[in-house]
Amino acid sequence: MTHDLLTSCPVCSNTLTVKRLHCNHCHTTIENDFEFSKLALLSKEQLQFIETFIVCRGNIKEVEKELGISYPTVRGKLQDVISALGHEVAQKSIVDERKIVGMLERGEITPDEAIKMLKD
How far apart are CA 15 and CA 90, in angstroms? Predict the structure, then answer.
């Protein structure tokens, strides 16, 4: 029986390291300090999103359809992944997108206007 790989400590939430690798076939064991790849540190939800994003070849419209979520939600999830991988996310675009979504929700702009503003 296999278990999901733990990447953070259940006690203090710091990132864990791998100390031992073992082959169940020949019983070779290698001990050292191994680090996880950045992708291994993403949550299950983030990994599922990235898999969908890749299968859709980065086409946000297709990701929207596949996951049944809006364009701003796709962008937000993508920005969360970028941030989780240790890269900076342009805060200006996040603020602008939230502002546009708010304007749309209040009826200040039409969906077509919101789409055009988000694309710009």
Answer: 26
| CATH number belonging to domain 41-119 | 1.10.10
Instruction: Taking each helix axis as running N to C, give the angle between helix 60-67 and helix 71-84, from 0 to 180 degrees, rounded to the nearest 10.
Output: 100
> Does the CA dihedral 54-60-65-69 come out positive or negative?
positive
Task: Tell me the per-residue pLDDT of 2-59, one tens digit each, with 9 for 90 and over.
Answer: 788 888 899 999 988 899 999 999 999 999 999 888 898 899 999 999 999 999 999 9
Domain boundaries, the chain: 41-119
Which two tokens mark 28? 């070779």
Neighbouring C-alpha atoms within 13 Å toward the C-beta of 49: 21
Strand partners, 34: 18
pTM of the shown model? 0.62
Q: What is the pLDDT of residues 48-65, one digit of tens each?
A: 999 999 999 999 999 999
Contact predicate 103/110, CB 8 Å: no
Locate 105 and state its tokens: 């929700």
